[in-house]
Amino acid sequence: MIVDLAIYDDLNENFASMPGSRHKNGGPLIFLNYSCIDKKNNKIHKVLQYFISITTDITSKYGFWVIIDMRKMDSHFLKYIVSEINTLKKNVHKIYIIKSNSFWSIKSLISSSFKTDIERLITPFRLQ
């Protein structure tokens, strides 16, 4: 595996992964683990840009799905993550946020600032 050395340390922090999985339309899945994200550092944008740059044009034409695991976490950082995703040059067709049933309405928080579909999942099994 060839990895850009400038991003190697950020990838080792395990807050983001693109394991090669595809959504039902054939586009890549990107997973963000909220509990591993350093909220004081702007690494999300850099890692997402890297994932998009290594994806082939054939694959990325189907659009990306981003799955954010926010179980056991508060929601203060969600708006920042969504705004970072919103700045990506390639299409993100859908964002799934895995969070408990007590999670407030995501649409009221961020839907006006985002250009794609955002859905809350209580369990990751609905991704199938």
Automatic annotation (TrEMBL):
Record's superkingdom? Eukaryota
Gene3D superfamilies given for it?
CRAL-TRIO lipid binding domain (3.40.525.10)
TM annotation in the entry: none
Return the GO cellular component terms, semicolon-separated: cytoplasm; extrinsic component of membrane
- The question of whether Lipid metabolism is a record keyword is answered with no
Keyword Transferase set for record: no
Q: Which UniProt keywords apply?
A: Guanine-nucleotide releasing factor
The organism of origin for this protein: Intoshia linei
GO MF entry, a single one: guanyl-nucleotide exchange factor activity
What is the protein name stated in its UniProt record?
A: CRAL-TRIO domain-containing protein
Q: Which Pfam families match?
A: CRAL_TRIO_2
- For the CRAL-TRIO domain, which residue ranges apply? 31-105
